[in-house]
Amino acid sequence: MSKSLSRRAFASLVGVCALGTTVAVAPDASAIVGGVPVPDGERPFVVQIEQRGDDGTWSHHCGGVLVHSRVVATAAHCATHAQQGLVTIRLVLGRADSSAPGGTVVTGEHFTVHSHPDFDTATNTDLALIVLDGPVDQPHAALPPLGTQLTPGRLVRAAGWGRTDLADPNKPSRMQEAKLPVNKFDTEGGTWDDKFICAGTAESRVGPGDSGGPLFDPNASGGTVVHGLVTGDTNTCPGLFTNLADPAVWKPFRAPLASEGLGNVIPG
Question: Is the pTM above the cut of 0.85?
Answer without folding.
Answer: yes
